[in-house]
Amino acid sequence: MSANRAVWGRVRSRLRAFPEQLAACGPEAAAYGRCVQASTAPGGRLSKDLCAREFEALRSCFAAAAKKTPKGGC
What we know:
Elements: H1 2-23, H2 26-40, H3 52-68
């Protein structure tokens, strides 16, 4: 049971760090949001890969931010 508790402790600490990691990617998130919003505006057509460049920038930012956080905790 102790090992299970340790695993959940690590998971919780990583989840607590998640909002900070997301905050580091504000510009990328905003750019992706603008692209999706423009695509879904009246007359716009959202289709697959329309905002792929913005999404990839956001995904890369999230991955880089996650790597900066130590695996053991915040």
